[in-house]
């Protein structure tokens, strides 16, 4: 288990992470969600020792990961493919990753390369298109032996077919060899079916950490005549209310569902993306077009 406590990070005196608390369990698939610039990449870099926190602790199975090579070898961050040596042939790159982490799954890499039509023997990273650089990068991430794999925007530049292939490949490798994946992405609907849990970041912290199932049970859209909706939601502060004429639509995570629904009022679920949008919407944002 990875335990992240009180993590703060400043860049040139500007606070980016302001007290991140999170527990990452073994063998689960997490989504790391948050608005642009909220600090997702920074957090992943801090966890995997690519950036130094200003304060806080991170322990893996009770042992600090800072300056601990053994612990760091169990964590892998897939981020920008440009961080690899661009002149390296892919085969050489795989060997290099194998030397660093040991136990690289060459058979799986070759299988995935065939599926994605990527020639590992010939290709040099520099000569690949943006999408294929990402494909090379995700193949490496799926084949490293690490227990905790952090994927920062793993499908950037991939076409829809390749994105689907990647999600399938991730699930297949997870079924074969369960380990933890933490996926930072904005394509919430696409990954929703993959995730066990989500972390939502706001203001440099984790504002919501919950299983997808529990969240989807809580998220509700209540709409109907304003007076009836307000009466139904008594004592609840919705995430957002939208009024149109005499009608009111309220988005909430706290509806007391035991209450009988008044005639004329509808109660619907919210998918993960809607939930995220309502949860992270800033006051007034999107109200005017
Ligand atoms: N190396 C750096 N030097 C200075 N500021 C940085 C650095 N890296 C990130 N930042 C700043 O930290 C903040 C968080 O950036 P980060 O990339 O972690 O956000 P993010 O949630 O991953 O964003 P996005 O979803 O847009 O990719 C931003 O304001 C960014 O400008």
Automatic annotation (TrEMBL):
Pfam families: ABC_tran. Keywords: ATP-binding, Nucleotide-binding. GO terms for molecular function: ATP binding. The keyword Lipoprotein does not apply. Residues 2-228 form the ABC transporter domain. InterPro entries: AAA+_ATPase (IPR003593), ABC_transporter-like_ATP-bd (IPR003439), P-loop_NTPase (IPR027417). PANTHER family: ABC TRANSPORTER, ATP-BINDING PROTEIN, SKFA PEPTIDE EXPORT ATP-BINDING PROTEIN SKFE. This is ATP-binding cassette domain-containing protein.
